[in-house]
Amino acid sequence: MIPSVALVTIWSSVGGGVIVWTAGLKGIPAELYEAAVIDGANRWRQFWSVTLPMLKPVVMYQAVLGFIGG
User: Fold this and answer.
1) Is residue 9 part of a domain?
2) SS3 category, 29
3) pLDDT tens across 3-31, in order?
4) Is residue 59 in a domain?
5) How many domains does the chain have?
6) SS (HEC) of the chain
């Protein structure tokens, strides 16, 4: 009983955010990463120059929801 309650509590607090982040990551076109590789970007540079800028709307959405929830 207790593990199931813990699982439901964790999912209700984290699950929605995981779905939003996953959708944001799936929305980044693969062509951007291919272009970055052609330009010589390593994984770290791809994160800073492709992934993070493309996830800015998701970051803002999660931040606003976090402030509202707080």
Assistant:
1) no
2) coil
3) 888 888 888 778 889 999 999 999 999 99
4) yes
5) 1
6) CHHHHHHHHHHHHHHHHHHHHHHHHHCCCHHHHHHHHHCCCCHHHHHHHHHHHHCHHHHHHHHHHHHHHC
What is the distance, to the nearest Å, from the Cα of residue 12 to the centroid of all Cα atoms in its chain?
17
Average pLDDT over residues 54-67: 95
Single-letter residue type at 12: S
φ and ψ of 29, to 5 deg: -65, 140
Per the CB < 8 A criterion, the answer to whether 57 and 12 are in contact is no
pLDDT at 56 over 90: yes
Report CA-CA distances (Å) from 16 to 2, 5, 9: 22, 17, 12
